[in-house]
Structures are given as structure tokens and as C-alpha cells.
Design a protein that fits this description.
Rossmann fold, 465 residues, alpha/beta, 17 helices, binds NADPH dihydro-nicotinamide-adenine-dinucleotide phosphate, 5-stranded mixed sheet
């Protein structure tokens, strides 16, 4: 993958269109930039949604009258806190924790926690903003939020991770609750971290509140399919996009960036549905495996031993590790960016198009830059935007909440079937919305408009809050 980019200046990245025909939207965007200085990823995410809304403002002037768009761009609450902990050498470490409770019009705040050294308020705000519309698209009763810390779990012992999680939750717990705010995992936060976080919440709150976190272990309130859900869901969405074009996944050559939770289960489902993944990556480079990525080995290297992706190539004959390499240079028909934001730029998109790529589904949040999106759309590539394509993770989190509320646990087949149906429904909603607003096949526009309308209509019902 390309080195993720951060845009300079006012956050209008290459490839972003002017906010056509709407001075009001341009003014709203500039107010967002002024009010949230230096939060470039948040500017980028806001701009992308505003670009889709000019058409809605023209059709639904009622919605613009009571500053609904300005209200939606402003988080309901932002919490920033100090996290102090001791490493194994006894050194005191100081990190910064965040929780942005973006919008609760449709339900309790819901969205993951990210532990990565790059995390800043702008990162969490962009993710919380995206999450609000994504969660609305699932049709489930969940609002949008996101959190995390600039803590790097890489190279830390289990005990260090535990002490960090305990300190983090000691502040965060007061903002959570199964009817208030329900976090889950994201980059750097998997089953191990959710375990430590849940343990500390349970200890402080003195109650076994299963529904306060999702992504829990199967033995203590977790849901089958949650671990697989984002990757599986993204492939289900991709499959729907291909079907809408009369195509299928069978025999397709694919690239998946990253090798974390989303990437691993994207590879698994692509293989189950007859496609072949020939490359995946991490931040150190990519591996190329013409025979098709060997899933058990990938899981052993990444999930069990937590090693760098090069260990995969060291253990499997006929494969190649390309240190620092850009995974998008590998020819493929299908690309699934599943690592991080802005990992696929305009140049990468042009390379993919000229190598014969026909479809892209985003497992990660905002992995394609605005210029990359434009290149794909102009080339007629089916482009499944993250807030629709990767909504299967949070949707299955909502299924986990349902199981917790009813003290029940469902089997794998039933839960996967529910996920598959949800992804089908999201595809239909987004597809039909794009058609209704005169942009057939434009999943970015369809997702932004459909998500926005669900949130905006609920907010309207509540009056000026
Ligand atoms: P993981 O931490 O499990 O994996 C992240 C993967 O992406 C790793 O391979 C990591 O490589 C790579 N990566 C992360 N940051 C960078 C970076 N700055 N540069 C290069 N590579 C990077 O995270 P997830 O799989 O959970 O999340 C991946 C994406 O999917 C994120 O955008 C997340 O927001 C999104 N997402 C996740 C959901 C979930 O349920 N987990 C739900 C919906 C979206 P390395 O180990 O070398 O850092």
C-alpha cells in the first residue's frame, strides 16, 4: 500500500470537487475547518459527505432550514483524558485517550476504540462522523461514536497492554453504559484488549453489564461471527455489487491490503466464495503468493504469534516478501483496502485500473483518497465505499447487543445468515438511493444520502437538540 497521506492546508484534498451550486454547504464546510483546526481527516470526511448533500438540499429545503447539517457536523460530546501507566521496566508512561460521542439520534453511541500512535482528536472525529452514517445504514438502533488512544500495543507485553487498558477504562467507564455508549475494537484493539477493558469496567461498575462492550470473547457474552463480520460483510457487499452488474466472484484474482482482523476474514470469505487472494500486507511491506494466500499460516503469523508479515513468506515456499512495497502494484481484478485511511491514492487507483481492476470494496474506513475515488468512478470501476461496505462489523456488534439483552446466544449459521441479509439490505438501500437521486451506481452518494436522511429525520423529530 502507499504510505498513508495527510493533507496539508485547509483539508481540501486533490480530487475533491467544489460543493456544486451550494454556497451554504461551502460555508458549512469552512466553518467546520475553522472550528476544528488541523483536523485534516475530519475535514476530508466532512467534505465527502457535504459533496453528496447538495442534491439533497435542493430536493429537501426543509431539512436545511433548522441547521440540521451544521448540527450533524458537530459532535454531541468530546472527551479527552490522560492515561498513565507503568511499563515492565517500571518507567511511567503517559498517553492520551479519546472518546467522541458523535450522534445519538438513532441509539446509544456505538463505534470502536483504536490504539495506534497516529491517533489524534481529528482521527477519532473523522471515524465517529463516518460511523454515524454507517450505523444508520445498518437500520439498527445505534448512534455513532469512536474512541482510542495514541498508545502503540506493538512490541508491548500482555501485562503492559493490560495495565494500559485498565488505566484507560478507569477514566472511560463513567461515559459508557449499554444504553449510553458501547465501544468495540478497531486498529490495535482485538479480543485481548476487549477482555482487559471489560474486566476493568466490570470491576469498577460492580455489575456484569455484558452489553457495554462488543467483540467480547465467546465464553463471556461475545457473539459468534463478530470476529469475522467486517471482512465477511465487505465480501458480501462486493458480491452484491458484482451481481448488480451481472458478474460473479468465481475465479477472480484479488488483493487485500493489511493483515489484521478485517483483512484476514476478507481473505477467508473471498476464498470460500471461489476467488483467489494473491497478496496482502502490513505496514512493513507486502507478501505475494501466486498460489493464493494460505489462510491457516496467515492466522498463525498474525493472530497467534503477532509477527510481521515477512514471517509468512519465510515459512512458505514460492512466496515473496516485498519490504516497503506498495501492494497495489500487484495486478488484480478486485482490490479490498482493509488497513487504514488514505492508503490508496490517485496514482494507485490509476495503476489498478490499468491492470484490469473491476471492483473495489473498502474494508477499512476512508482508505481511498478523494482523487482515488474519482479515478475509480470515472473508469467505471464498481466502488463500494467503506461506510456501506464495512458496516457488517458494527451490524454484528448490534446483534451481539441483542443476544446480551435477551441472555441468548445464536449459532454460527444463523448469525452469518443475519449478517448476509443485512449487507444485502444495505446494498439495496444504497443502490436505490443513488438511482433516486440521479446517480445510478454511485455508492458514495447513495450511502451518504441514505445515512444522512435517517439521522436527520430522527433529529428533526426531537426538536432543537
Ligand atoms: P487491525 O489492527 O487488526 O489491523 C490493521 C492492519 O492494517 C494491520 O495489518 C496493520 O499493519 C495495517 N495498518 C494499520 N495502520 C497502518 C498504517 N498507518 N500504515 C500501514 N498499515 C497500517 O485493525 P482492523 O483490521 O480492525 O481495522 C482495519 C481497518 O478496518 C481500519 O480502517 C478500521 O477502522 C476498519 N474497520 C474495522 C472494523 C472492525 O470490526 N475491526 C469495523 C469497520 C471498519 P501493522 O500491524 O504493520 O500496523
Amino acid at each position: 500500500m502507499s504510505e498513508p497521506v495527510v493533507y496539508e492546508g485547509a483539508g481540501v484534498a486533490p480530487g475533491m470537487a467544489p460543493l456544486a451550486g451550494s454556497e451554504d454547504l461551502e460555508a458549512i464546510y469552512h466553518a467546520v475547518v475553522r472550528r476544528n483546526p488541523a483536523e485534516l481527516e475530519f475535514h476530508q470526511a466532512t467534505r465527502e459527505v457535504l459533496e453528496s448533500l447538495s442534491i439533497v438540499v435542493a430536493k429537501r429545503p426543509d431539512l436545511a432550514q433548522r441547521k440540521i447539517i451544521e448540527r450533524i457536523c458537530e459532535p454531541e460530546r468530546q472527551v479527552i483524558f490522560r492515561v498513565v501507566w507503568q511499563d515492565d521496566a517500571g518507567e511511567v508512561q503517559v498517553n492520551r485517550g479519546f472518546r467522541v460521542q458523535f450522534n445519538s439520534a438513532l441509539g446509544p453511541y456505538k463505534g470502536g476504540l483504536r490504539f495506534h500512535p497516529s491517533v489524534s482528536l481529528g482521527t477519532i472525529k473523522f471515524l465517529g462522523f463516518e460511523q454515524t452514517f454507517k450505523n444508520a445504514l445498518t437500520g439498527m438502533p445505534i448512534g455513532g461514536g469512536k474512541g482510542g488512544a495514541d498508545f502503540d500495543p506493538k512490541g508491548r507485553s500482555d501485562d503492559e497492554v493490560m495495565r494500559f487498558c485498565q488505566s484507560f477504562m478507569t477514566e472511560l467507564y463513567r461515559h459508557l453504559g449499554e444504553y449510553r455508549d458501547v465501544p468495540a475494537g478497531d486498529i490495535g484493539v482485538g479480543a485481548r484488549e476487549i477482555g482487559y477493558l471489560f474486566g476493568q469496567y466490570k470491576r469498577i461498575a460492580n455489575q456484569y453489564e455484558s452489553g457495554v462492550l462488543t467483540g467480547k470473547g465467546l465464553g463471556w457474552g461475545g457473539s459468534l461471527v463478530r470476529k469475522e463480520a467486517t471482512g465477511y460483510g465487505a465480501v458480501f457487499f462486493l458480491n452484491e455489487m458484482l451481481r448488480a452488474r451481472g458478474l460473479s466472484l468465481e475465479g477472480r484474482r484479488c488483493i487485500v491490503s493489511g493483515s489484521g482482523n478485517v483483512a484476514v476474514y476478507t481473505v477467508e470469505k473471498l476464498h470460500q466464495l471461489g476467488a483467489k487472494v494473491v497478496a496482502c500486507s502490513d505496514s512493513s511491506g507486502y507478501v505475494y503468493d501466486e498460489a493464493g494466500i494460505e489462510l491457516d499460516l496467515l492466522k498463525q503469523v498474525k493472530e497467534v504469534e503477532r509477527l510481521r508479515i515477512s514471517a509468512y513468506a519465510e515459512r512458505r515456499a514460492g512466496t515473496r516478501f516485498v519490504p516497503g512495497g506498495n501492494v497495489w502494484e500487484v495486478p488484480c481484478e478486485i482490490a479490498m483496502p482493509s488497513a487504514t485511511q488514505n492508503e490508496l491514492n490517485g496514482r494507485d487507483a490509476r495503476m489498478l485500473v490499468s491492470n484490469g481492476c473491476i471492483a473495489v470494496a473498502e474494508g477499512a474506513n476512508m482508505p481511498t483518497t478523494p482523487e482515488g475515488v474519482r479515478v475509480f468512478q470515472e473508469a467505471g470501476v464498481a466502488f463500494g465505499v467503506g461506510k456501506a461496505a464495512n458496516a457488517g462489523g458494527v451490524a454484528t456488534s448490534a446483534l451481539e447487543m441483542q443476544q446480551n439483552a435477551s441472555r441468548d446466544s445464536w449459532n454460527f449459521e444463523y448469525t452469518e445468515q443475519r449478517l448476509a441479509q443485512i449487507m444485502k439490505d444495505i446494498h439495496r438501500t444504497v443502490y436505490e438511493t443513488a438511482e433516486e437521486y440521479g446517480a445510478p451506481g454511485n455508492y458514495v452518494l447513495g450511502a451518504n444520502i441514505a445515512g444522512f436522511l435517517r439521522v436527520a429525520e430522527a433529529m428533526e423529530a426531537f426538536g432543537l437538540i
